Amino acid sequence: MPEEIEKLLKQTTEDVREAKKTLEELANEVAALADIVGPALEKQIQALRSARMTTVTEIQQALGSLREIRKFFLEEDFNKEMQRLEQFVKLCREIKELKDLGLFDAVADTLLKLAVR
């Protein structure tokens, strides 16, 4: 029986050494992969942070512009600017009517005749 136990102990010792060797090889492979994957992950993290910061900046600028537009519509200046716009549109229509009537051509002809004399 002691021989069988000794045989079993030797076999167990050999199995443990083989398992230890396998574990060491696996640990070395994992460490090598970590050396490759780690820097790649860092690079991706930096790219994501940069994209996020760019997106945040763009959204903040867009929101600032929208706030200014909203503020414009709520201020007293809005009514003044609308009156100015209405006056401008009215003036443009009057100019178009005068042009369609040929008044500008007549004035231009008169100016040319006066300039020639």
For this entry, give a set of tags:
mainly alpha; 117 residues; single chain; rod-shaped; 2 domains
Question: Quick summary of this structure?
Answer:
The protein is mainly α and 117 residues long. The protein has 3 helices and no strands.
Topology:
Elements: H1 2-74, H2 77-101, H3 103-116
Structural notes for this entry:
With 117 residues, the chain is an all-alpha fold. It has 2 domains: 1-74; 76-117. The protein is 96% helix and 0% strand. It contains 3 helices and no strands. It has helices spanning 2-74, 77-101, 103-116. The longest helix is centred in the first third of the chain and has 73 residues, at 2-74. The model has no long low-confidence stretch (mean pLDDT 91).
Task: Count every beta strand, where a strand is a DSSP E run of 2 or more residues.
Answer: 0
What letter string, H or E per element, gives the SSE order? HHH
Q: What is the strand content? A: under 5%
Whole-number total of structural domains: 2
Biggest sheet statistics: none
Q: Strand pairing plus helix content: what structural class? A: mainly alpha
Helical content class: over 70%
The mean pLDDT is 91
Shape: rod-shaped
Total helix count? 3
Distance between the termini: 141 Å
Low-pLDDT stretches are none
Work out the radius of gyration: 43 Å
